[in-house]
Amino acid sequence: MTPRHVVLTTLGSLGDLHPTMAVALALRARGHRATLVTHGMYKEKVEAEGLGFALMPPDLTELGDLDATMRSAMEGPDASRTVIERFVLPWLDAAYDAIDAAARDADLLVAHPLTYALPIVAEKRGLPWASTSLQPIVQYSATDPSVWPQAPWLEPPGRKHPWLYRAFFGLAKVASRPWLKPVEALRTRAGLAPNPLHPSFEAMFSPALHLVLFSRVLGEPQPDWPRASLQCGFAFHDTDPGERTLDPALERFLDAGEPPIVFTLGSSAVFLAEDFYVDAVRAAQRLGRRAILLVGRDLVQRLPDPLPEGVAVFPYAPYSLLLPRGAATVHQGGAGTTGQALRAGRPMVVVPFAHDQPDHAARIARRGIGVTIPRARCDADTMTAALSRILGEPSFAARAAEAGAIVRAEHGAERAAEALERLLPNERPTRPPER
Questions:
Q1: Could you give the C-alpha distances from 184 to 99, 132, 238, 339, 383, in angstroms and in order?
Q2: Domain boundaries, the chain
Q3: How far is 409 from 397, CA to CA, in rounded Å?
Q4: How far is Cα 277 from Cα 263, in angstroms, rounded to an integer?
């Protein structure tokens, strides 16, 4: 096929960026040009891989204190609404302009669930587009219901009575439509007719191709998924050109003893760590286990001083290189971290904070791959008990290994790139001159 230009958008954390980069790199491997439109803080990371970059506001580093910003994005059951109202809708026009500029010579556009402007750009320019979801909760399934932070009590009865979830989604559509009016206003400014579809529940799904970028280990295809859904599996990328190997100090620690327990809170929940790492050290000591703490770059966490023997602290390590060498993983349940922990094939403890994390925790527990601890109850005692269980009962290791084999065989980025290539037009469209 003639090389084409694909523009991909993403907003949020590394858990959002890395799958998008993985698909972009898979497209490049097939001979196409790929441009990412995303936050300015990711420019160096994107360009280091030889991918095109275009800035889409907001740049999270310009929203004031980064710690406070991330706390507001991760705190409480309404965190998802906070993200949309504070970090997405106020920047909608700027996002439209950024995507529209990148799309001037594009052949195909790929949307993140929060890039509400992309379908409008695609319609205005007459370009094909695909949508994506990184987690089951975005599929809005009543036949495989998710745990919603706003209504966690709904999930158990909803498994037996899908109509409860359909009613919940109906109410959510009505309640959220008013605060998504900026999306409708943007359509009007773009000269397009009103869209009766809800921006978050319906219009965000492409009628041509919707890429489901999570494993069937987390959720099998459902009859009420969007019609154009294609489940590809996780799309993995977590090593920059200078990080293809582990830090030598980390390698030495791994080689010096038995596989450690790895404690991490990803790239977002780490801003709300509080006593998580202190409790992690206590739990590891009680169990007589070595531990690695991934505490985030440029962050000062509460840590024992001095650290006990057998505990090592690092700001970051590529999960793909580290987690398979651990005994177990304790993490927050974000989409990216959960995918990597599943691929590693090790049992896990999930401590969910917000957004999709409670749902991932519940799905991991149902599969017998790990257990979950509510954040409000997470301390040294509950960590010790949970780790003692998953390390002491062989069924957890067996099921985790089985899940890992499934995830590693899915090759999500490559499948997504193949599907996107099929969506590319046979001939480049005739483009009207820019005004």
A1: 17, 21, 36, 34, 46
A2: 5-234+411-423, 244-408
A3: 19
A4: 8
CATH classification of 244-408, choosing from 3.40.50.2000, 2.40.400.10, 3.40.50.11540, 3.40.50.1820?
Answer: 3.40.50.2000
Q: What is the pTM of this model?
A: 0.92
Here the tokens at position 267 are 């790239």
Is the fold of 5-234+411-423 the same as that of 244-408? Answer: yes
DSSP 8-state code for residue 138: G
C-alpha separations of 403 from 261, 340, 396, 409 in Å: 19, 11, 11, 10
Per-residue confidence in pLDDT tens, the chain, 435 aa: 789 999 999 998 888 999 999 999 999 999 999 999 999 989 999 999 999 999 998 876 666 666 666 666 667 667 777 778 778 899 999 999 999 999 999 999 999 999 999 999 999 999 999 999 999 999 999 999 999 888 888 888 888 899 999 999 999 999 888 888 999 999 999 999 999 999 999 999 999 999 999 999 999 999 999 999 999 999 999 877 767 789 999 999 999 999 999 999 987 778 778 899 999 999 999 999 999 999 987 666 778 878 899 999 999 999 999 999 999 999 999 999 999 999 999 999 999 988 899 999 999 999 999 999 999 999 999 999 999 999 999 999 999 999 999 999 999 999 999 999 999 987 665 555 554
Domain 5-234+411-423 falls in which CATH fold?
A: Rossmann fold (3.40.50)
Q: Return phi, psi of residue 265, to 5°.
A: -120, 25
Peptide bond into 90 cis (omega under 30): no
